[in-house]
Structures are given as C-alpha cells and as structure tokens.
Amino acid sequence: TVTNNAGTSTISRTNLIIVSPNPASNMVPFTESFENIASIPSSSDWLVENNGGNAWEINSSAAYTGSKSIRLINFSGNPTSQFDAFITPGFNLTNITGASLKFKVSFAPRSASSTDALKVYASNDCGQNFSLRYTKTGLNLSTAGIISSNFVPNNASQWREETVNINNNFYNNKPAVRFKFEYQQGNGNNIYIDDINVIGTSTVGIQDIDFLSTISVYPNPSQGTTSIQYNLSEASHVKIEVMDIAGRRIAALADEKQSAGSHQYSIGENWLSGIYFINFSVDGGTMTEKLVITR
What residues have CB less than 8 Å from 150, skipping those under 6 apart? Predict the structure, then answer.
C-alpha cells in the first residue's frame, strides 16, 4: 500500500513468498507419478516458473504410469526461446549415499532443426541456489522421432527413462535437496514428464531397515480415518510425527521407547483435505510416508 497527497493505492500479490520445511518432509526412496496431485502449484509443494505463454501443468492426456503426468504445451501458445520450469518439493537425504534422480520423459521435435532443451538442476539449500546436473537438446531429447502435428504419446515406447547422478558430497546426507526441470522452447513440440523417483542407499542399521519395511499406512488416499501399523523385532526408541504441506507439525504420535511386537495408531478423523507427511524414526533410521486425505 502506497499513500501520498494524491491518495492511496494498494496492489496485492499472492504466492510471492514460499516457506518450505527444512529439513524436508520427503524421505528417500521417493516416487511421484502425479496421480494424487490435482494441480500445481496449488495444494502441493511443487512450484512453477512461467513468464508468459503456457506453463507446466498436471494433465490426464498421457502418462507412463497411471493416468496423469506433468506436461508443457509447446505446439502452440509458447513463444520461441521461452523458458519454463517446475521445481520439486524438498527431499531429506540425511543418512543417504549414492543418491540419484530418475524420471520418464516423452518429447517430439517438430523438425530436425529444433533446438529445444531440457535441463535439470539440483539444489542442496532448499532451492536458494541450483547447479546444472543434466541437459539434452534437439534430436537427442526426442523419444518419438520428429512429429509435426500436436504431440501426445500413445504408448510406452514413446517414453524414455533418464537418470541424474547426484552422488557426491554436495547432495549426499543433505536435509533439503530440490530439483528444477527447465525447458527452453526451440520450435519444438509438447513435452511430458512422469515417474519422478529419488533413490539412494541408506546408511542406517539392519534393525532400522527391518522396522521401516513393516510400516503400513492404510487406506491411502483416505476419506476419513487412516490406520498406521508397524512391527518392532526388538525394543526400540520410536518417534512418529505428522506434518502438513507447509512443514507445520499436525500431530505427535510417539517419542518413546517401545516394546517388541505390533503397534497401531489411527489418524485423520477430523483433518481437512490435503497432503500430509508421516515421519518415522527408529534408533536413527528415518522414513516418510505421504498421506492424502480427500473429503
């Protein structure tokens, strides 16, 4: 709001400041096929950068897994040399080594002279600074040959899996790693991304891994109460808390020494629709399960 002798003028802007949790809520291994995300950036921690023309969006026209993927329309409505990007949520790579990012891509240039480029950047400070980790351009980016008409992939052969290596000290064991997918329009066609996976090797002990493999969160997605079940092969210190998409703690279920055997909690009965993250920790081993509530 600005006020002077001529009067007062007020301009409001939304989504200018984004607060992301640090350490990040998403633990490794992580997979996202966009089936439970209605749109971006609303109702999620995914961000979009767009200065005009078309923007990255969730769509149900094509997918490698399920029925949804993230898409950028370039056949029309996106000027040449336009840059468009989306940024993933943060990932907690604490106790993780040998980390990598995998994703499926489907793209078709409109001609042999297309100069379209897809670049993937990584950040170890929750998105404040990014470094280039992957790039492909022109025909090297193509997964379906040259297609001059509006491109929509119609079978699995028109997709390709890509791997981004982040196995170094800049990202291993870091609590808030994010990725940026940036596309530069070079008279190309539509591009689709699906099945974004972050993987790595956990450095936690065998008992911790045994515990994490017994965790069950069901039903998920849920329209009401969700049950959390797990089994301890021996007495261990267990901590369980639930965070919302903004990193606020919604519930603290346990922070205590628990006996060997089965344990169960019920959550979500009066919770609002949205995305939640259930953080588990047992004697240093950690894991996060995403819970989607729809009412």
Answer: 75, 76, 189, 190
Pairing of strands 47-50, 57-59: unpaired
pLDDT surpasses 60 at 15: no
Which DSSP letter does residue 173 get?
A: T
In whole angstroms, give the CA distance from residue 194 to residue 268. Answer: 29
Supply the pTM of this predicted model. Answer: 0.68
Quick one: tokens of 149?
A: 């008409």
Rounded Cα–Cα distance for residues 68 and 64 (Å): 8
Residue 56 CA, chain-centre distance (Å), reads 14
Cβ-count burial 56-93 (b if 16+ within 10 Å, e if not) = bebbeebbbbeebbbbbbbbeebeeebebbbbbbbbbb
Query: pLDDT per residue over 243-276, tens digit each?
Result: 887 778 899 999 999 998 889 999 998 899 988 9
